[in-house]
Amino acid sequence: MDRIGASVLTISPGRPIRASVATFGALGWSGFRRYATYRQATIAGTFTNIVFGFLRCYVLLAVAAGASGGHPGGYDRQQLAAFV
């Protein structure tokens, strides 16, 4: 067989952690570059999630205040806020 230009990616059994760190590092870096490219969309998405999180929290707290005993489903106000 002719081995000119042939390369095979191998992971050494002695260094599986190093290969995993390199793989996850490359994935993390590419994800960072993707989100850094669309900064306005990332900021808008973060803002939207925060607003809807507050809305969800206040709706659940209103349900807790209106429920008989103030513990819907056995949860108190702190547990509902932590859930959101």
Structure explained in plain terms:
This protein has helices spanning about 15-35, 40-65, 75-84. It is an all-alpha fold. The mean pLDDT is about 80. It has one domain.
Mean pLDDT: 80
Shape: elongated
Radius of gyration using CA atoms only? 25 Å
Low confidence ranges: none
The number of distinct β-strands equals 0
Q: Estimate what percentage of residues fall within beta strands.
A: under 5%
Please give the domain count.
1
Give me the oligomer status: single chain
Structural class: mainly alpha
Largest sheet: none
What's the end-to-end separation, in Å?
A: 62 Å
In which range does the helix fraction lie?
55-70%
- What is the helix tally? 3
Q: Give the SSE string.
A: HHH
Précis, in short:
The chain has helices at residues 16-37, 39-66, 77-83. It has 84 residues and is an all-alpha fold.
Key descriptive features of the protein:
84 residues; mainly alpha; 3 helices; 0% strand; elongated
Write the layout of secondary structure elements.
Layout: H1 16-37, H2 39-66, H3 77-83
